[in-house]
Amino acid sequence: MRLAEARAGQATQLLCDALGAGERTLELSFRKHLGVSPKQYLKAMRMLGCRPAEV
User: Which Gene3D superfamilies does the protein's record reference (predicted)?
Assistant: First the structure.
């Protein structure tokens, strides 16, 4: 697994834990409201040089 994918997975798990939601629920919500998965969103933010707020 690549480092970026590992970090995205860790960030996704932290977000799930903070929200008390499962990974599938989080993914469906991201896709519904943003049109991408949480990992795709984090990757895009990194490419833009943005950092999401700390959880």
Answer: Homeodomain-like
